[in-house]
Amino acid sequence: MTIHPTAVIDSSAVIDPTAEVGAYAIIGPRVVVGPGVEIRPHALIDKDTTIGRGSRIFSFASVGADPQDLKYQGERTSLLIGENVTIRESATVHRGTRGGGGVTVIGDGCLIMATVHVAHDCRLGPGVIMSSYAVLAGHITIGEGAIIGGLTAIHQFCRVGVHAFLGGFSGLSKDLPPYMAAAGDTRRPIISGPNVIGLRRRGVPQETIDALKGAYLIICRNNRPLADVLAEAETEYGSVPEVRTILDFYRSSERGVWR
pTM, whole model, 2 decimals? Predict the structure, then answer.
């Protein structure tokens, strides 16, 4: 274990012998730092935070701070950071609240770039990428492998589906369906079709991408009632698991899904 002599570490923190803690870093009460974790100089790990194997927290990041929620009254809540997560400079990730289940979750392999904000009770699936200056309000769910562009803002309680792509300078006030690419402000983000580049990078077969394109045209490129277009897409492409994921996503939405 390498701990710089200027680091400030609470007596209740548990730090794996293979972890590294840099100069002037602060590690607060009940923090658990896993094997091979790197805490860079001047990083703050506030309290009740668990950091998984191989993760890196860069300088001036603030991780595990109290949630910015007026209903929060100091109750014990937590932040769970998975394995091989990277949180870059000046990013902020807050713990959960009682009303959101008490926990914020960052999945394995996520990349949280500099100056990103992840608010209370958010849940990021594995492999999510958040670009600089992107901000998540509370209670947001980001699906596995989704990419959030820089300078974007997402409204509380929204969902972003698995392997979706939200372009920079965007705002999102409704759910963004899985596998789709979109950009635009909160009045009307434009869904341009499947996230073809991202899907190909992940080895998704072309026939699956073609089915996603077909479902996109049915669901998003007309003004018919949502129930009707979902039924048509199910008839045409319902045997494709990825299309079924999109259909289930629309049908389970509480805020509505952009078309």
Answer: 0.96
Residues of the chain with pLDDT under 70: 1
Q: What span, in angstroms and rounded, lies between the C-alpha atoms of 53 and 105?
A: 15
Active site residue 82: no
CATH topology of domain 2-139: UDP N-Acetylglucosamine Acyltransferase; domain 1 (2.160.10)
Q: For domain 200-251, give its CATH number from 1.20.1180, 3.10.290, 1.10.10, 3.30.40.
A: 1.20.1180
Active-site position among 121, 145, 161, 163: 121
Give domain limits for the chain: 2-139, 200-251
Alpha carbons 196 and 179: distance in angstroms, whole number? 8
Please indicate whether residue 46 is annotated as part of the active site: no
* Catalytic pick among 138, 143, 161, 198: 138
Among 94, 117, 120, 163, the active-site one is: 120
> In sequence order, which ranges of the chain are alpha helices (DSSP H)?
196-201, 206-220, 226-237, 241-251
Q: What is the pLDDT of residue 207?
A: 98
pLDDT attached to residue 185:
83
Does 120 qualify as catalytic in the annotation? Answer: yes
